[in-house]
Design a protein that fits this description.
Layout lengths: L9 E2 L1 H17 L20 E7 L9 E7 L2 E7 L12 H4 L1 H5 L9 E3 L7 E4 L2 H19 L4 E5 L8 H5 L2 E2 L8 H10 L19 E5 L3 H4 L4 H9 L3 E5 L5 H4 L3 E3 L6 H14 L5 H7 L5 E3 L13 E2 L6 E2 L5 E4 L4 E4 L12 E4 L2 E5 H9 L4 H8 L3 H13 L3 E5 L11 H14 L8 E4 L40 E5 L2 H4 L4 H9 L3 E6 L11 E4 L13 E4 L2 E4 L13 H11 L10 H10 L2 H5 L4 H6 L3 E3 L51 H4 L2 E6 L13 H4 L5 E4 L1 H5 L8 E6 L2 E9 L7 E5 L9 E2 L28 E6 L1
Parallel strand pairs: 1-6, 7-8, 7-21, 9-10, 9-19, 10-11, 19-20, 21-22, 22-23, 27-31, 28-30
Antiparallel strand pairs: 2-3, 3-4, 5-6, 5-23, 12-18, 13-14, 15-16, 17-18, 24-25, 25-26, 27-33, 28-31, 29-30, 29-33, 30-32
Helix pairs in contact: 6-15, 10-13, 10-14, 10-15, 13-14
The protein binds ligand MGD (2 copies) and molybdenum atom.
One ligand MGD binds next to α16 and β22.
């Protein structure tokens, strides 16, 4: 890495001298080098002392690789797949291999630092751990005295492991507020299950799938290590259909690519639903037995009929009164009865008089509601002709088993993706594509395989995290009482859209601690910076055990912490000690790991012990995982009726009892704003990084440049050539980077890899322009409205 690419952060003179001294010690430990250049091969191989260490890699890319690391003379020298694990699961990608340059990157935070200039000015002085921790202790006590415990918030990426800190400090936390829950919000009520952690079946099951519809995910890059499940399915004859506005890597390997208008997937599914209903392509037996579609509802009000009266309160006891079972119309006796007493004899359609109430079935009501969503209508919204929508509907309904795969990066990140999830559940309920081999619905990021529960080490009762009324992504815009942020990872950049607004809020905070590995964007806002080390560096032999994609994996130390950095657990402990609470934590991370293994019933049942993990080179395949994980095989759902309850009564008042079309907030046809800002702005992930992590690895920087990709047509009309410096902007802000011509990008749209660091792009940050709108239906959604990063319009000009 050249000096120009290196850190742009300024240390003051005093700070610089001190940092020099601190790093010099670090350098000795690191084998006399900070960066990679000139370091590789510096020792004659035959003279070197070499060892092999088996360990795990990071988790957020969902690869969950088990690694074989070569350590030469105390330095990490080579990374390969763990060659002792089952061949099917033996893998590593460029990210893993490049850890050599990532760990020894010039971008590493080397020493604790204190801000000396204005917040955001990047002026720091190096300080000692003792000085940093004393300041943190003082500032926490100050905030607690002034505002109370809940004034501190821990903003945390997934990778860092500070799990006990919020409870110990009594502060609030919330991983991924508004992120990755978009379609899941619409899926969850139908099956009552947690669909946020993965689809209803594992992606290995796709070898049994006949029709695979993949929408809003580029899983060949974002679940790259499970790409074999896609290829195996393809070889087994599965037909793969990809919905994506852009010609993604995944689309390029599919049988069919459907270039849908961004943000319009729900309309596509609504069209499919109508076609399946009109052509009676639904599975009537499944619908009668396993869904709420035969249930009766009041034809005028849309209320479901119940055996008793209404939900009410018992006047004497004050207890809520259960209104009793849902009702169906029993065709054999010609009257309304509780649903469980007439299953296959229930009428699916019709209008009935139930004690003077005009009643209809949910199914009939759905059909009526669907009348407006013809495939022609859907074609108008999605830009996909009706015949294609009908063909996909026909295949999905009749050429099963079918699996409907959603992602978390594409269609998930608009203003109303819950409608996609809800429509997907109605499609599933109509066709019965769930529970049997090869069928399913949901996201399969990381394969969505089996996991085990590890032993849960508990803090004493009195320690509990605080609860907040306001979700973290709304701190900049809603009244709240948070004044101190402990940020783990690049959270100011990643967890808030509309970065300029975020910055105003950051300026209003009393105190910010950043705990991280690299000089990423969040660093510059911090008052105190603490350097942590990578998972290859440690002070104990083992500090992480994880249950990953059908395996249990153990981390093993490769090298000592570089520079003056420390592992997560040690930093957490030091912060706890700074406020006198250290004694409540395990002595060290290894004690915790042993506890998690020794107190796991799942592991005990399988005979997986700490020693066995070490003997098996840090990775053991779990028992009974030869067959892929399949949920709901008994077709009992986690709803009160154990059926798929696809009519969402509680959302009827906001127009979503049935999935109903709703325009996006910004990226919709006819938005007057599009005259000023005509290009939709998509941010995707890339196989070369894990969000903002890995941007510091020089070996990867040669493959991924922070560019904005545009269709050549859109470039031509703006006088932009490939490689030109451009400015992308809207009313929220702007950024400057290089334009890249790419026919894979949909005309009228634009695409970038999300999470680029400001220092590697010409000016600004892509997050400056993203939309922070909150859907008005927020309160009705199981996990609240998602952050609509992709529901963003921009214009681009030559800079
Ligand atoms: N290598 C790598 N892997 C990762 C991650 C990483 O950072 N790097 N991150 C992990 C995380 S946290 C997540 S959430 C997942 C996300 O994984 P994915 O869901 O696969 O996310 P993306 O890579 O952003 O892919 C989204 C795709 O959706 C498309 N898209 C955009 N808008 C629309 C739309 O309106 N409709 C449809 N149908 N498609 C649309 C985009 O063009 C893109 O091809 O990946 C995980 N895996
Ligand atoms: N505009 C826009 N914004 C987005 C998205 C988008 O599509 N568009 N996607 C969103 C999504 S889906 C997600 S999941 C989030 C992801 O956002 P983040 O969760 O912030 O993900 P990363 O940027 O990968 O951050 C991981 C951080 O952990 C650090 N790290 C890695 N390993 C360790 C470790 O062992 N210990 C410690 N202490 N730190 C470690 C890395 O250096 C990095 O700072 O971003 C969201 N933000
Ligand atoms: Mo994510």
């Amino acid at each position: 890495m050249t000096g120009a690419q290196g850190s742009k952060f300024d240390l003051t003179r005093r700070g610089f001298l001190k940092a020099g001294a601190v790093s010099a010690m670090g350098l000795a430990a690191a084998g006399s080098m900070t960066g990679c250049s000139g370091w590789l091969g510096s020792t004659a191989p035959e003279a070197a002392e070499e060892k092999t260490v088996y360990t795990l890699h990071q988790f957020m890319c969902t690869g969950r690789c088990s690694l074989k690391c070569t350590v030469r003379d105390g330095r990490l020298a080579m990374i390969q797949p763990n060659d002792t694990v089952d061949e099917y699961y033996r893998h590593v990608c460029m990210k893993g291999i490049s850890e050599i340059q990532h760990v020894y990157s010039d971008e590493r935070l080397q020493t604790p630092m204190r801000r000396v200039g204005e917040r955001g000015s990047n002026e720091f002085e190096a300080i000692t751990w003792d000085e940093a921790l004393a300041t943190i202790g003082e500032e926490l006590n100050k905030a607690w005295d002034k505002y109370g415990k809940s004034s501190v918030y821990m903003s945390a990426s997934n990778e860092p492991r500070f799990s006990f800190l919020p409870a110990l400090l009594g502060c609030a936390t919330g991983v991924e507020p508004g992120i990755d829950r978009g379609t899941g919000n619409g899926e969850a009520p139908a099956i009552g299950g947690d669909v946020f952690g993965g689809g209803t079946a594992e992606s290995r099951d796709w070898v049994n799938t006949k029709t695979l519809v993949i929408a809003g995910t580029n899983l060949l890059e974002t679940s790259m290590m499970q790409a074999n499940t896609f290829m195996d399915a393809k070889e087994a004859g599965c037909e793969i259909i990809v919905l994506d506005p852009h010609f993604s890597t995944t689309a390029s390997k599919a049988d069919q690519w459907i270039p849908i208008q961004p943000g319009c997937d729900a309309a596509f599914y609504l069209g499919m639903m109508t076609y399946i209903l009109d052509n009676k392509l639904y599975d009537e037996k499944f619908v009668l037995e396993h869904t709420s579609l035969p249930f009766l509802m009041n034809a005028e009000t849309g209320e479901m009929l119940r055996e008793g009266k209404e939900w009410g309160v018992d006047e004497e006891t004050g207890e809520p009164v259960d209104p009793g079972d849902f009702m169906v119309w029993d065709a054999t006796v010609g009257k309304a009865v509780p649903y469980s007493s007439a299953i296959l004899t229930a009428s699916l359609e019709g209008e009935f008089d139930v004690d003077g109430v005009k009643a209809t079935t949910a199914f009939s009501n759905l059909k009526k509601n669907q009348a407006r969503y013809t495939t022609e209508w859907a074609a108008g919204v999605t830009g996909i002709d009706a015949a294609t929508i009908e063909e996909v509907a026909r295949k999905y309904a009749t050429n099963g088993p079918a699996y409907l795969v959603f992602g978390q990066g594409g269609s998930d990140k608009y203003s109303n993706p819950d409608i996609i999830g809800h429509a997907g559940m109605v499609l599933t309920a109509l066709t019965g594509n769930i529970g049997k081999p090869g069928s399913g619905i949901g996201h399969t990021i990381g394969g969505a395989g089996y996991g085990v529960a590890l032993g849960e080490w508990k803090l004493p009762e009195q320690f509990k995290p605080a609860e907040l009324d306001v979700r973290a992504d709304r701190f900049p815009t809603r009244e709240n009482d948070v004044h101190v942020i402990i940020s783990l990872g690049n959270t100011f950049q990643q967890y808030w859209a509309n970065m300029n607004k975020t910055r105003e809020w950051i300026d209003s905070l009393d105190f910010i601690v950043h705990i991280g590995m690299y000089y990423e964007d969040t660093v510059k806002y911090a008052d105190i910076v603490l350097p942590v080390c990578s998972k290859f560096e440690d002070t104990v032999e083992h500090s992480i055990v994880r249950s990953d994609y059908n395996h249990v994996n153990l981390q093993t130390k490769c090298i000592d912490p570089l520079f003056d950095s420390k592992p997560d657990f040690d930093v957490m402990r030091l912060i706890a000690e700074s406020v006198g609470l250290g004694e409540y934590l395990p002595k060290d991370a290894e004690e915790l790991v042993r506890y998690q293994i020794e107190n796991s019933k799942d592991l005990a049942d399988q005979g997986i012990t700490f020693d066995a993990l070490i003997k098996n080179h840090g990775s053991i395949k779990m028992a009974n995982t030869d067959e892929p994980r399949r949920g709901y095989t008994d077709l009992k759902f986690k709803t009160p009726t154990e059926r798929m309850e696809v009519y969402y009564q509680s959302q009827a008042e906001v127009g979503q009892g049935w999935p109903n079309w709703e325009e996006n907030n910004e990226a919709y046809a006819g938005n007057p704003l599009a005259e000023k800002y005509p290009l939709q702005f998509t941010q995707t992930r890339t196989r070369f990084s894990n969000h903002s992590h890995f941007k510091a690895a020089a070996w990867l920087q040669q493959f991924v440049k922070p560019v904005l990709e545009l269709n050549p047509k859109d470039m031509e009309s703006r006088g932009i050539a490939d490689g030109d410096l451009i400015e992308a902007f809207n009313d929220r802000g702007s950024f400057k980077c290089v334009a890249r011509a790419n026919n894979a990008v949909r005309p009228g749209s634009s695409r970038t890899f999300e999470a680029g660091w400001s220092k590697f792009i010409e000016e600004g940050n892509t997050q400056n322009v993203t939309n922070d709108h909150v859907n008005e239906r927020d309160e009705y959604l199981p996990t609240g409205a998602p952050i609509p990063f992709n529901d963003t319009l921009i214009e681009v000009k030559k800079a």
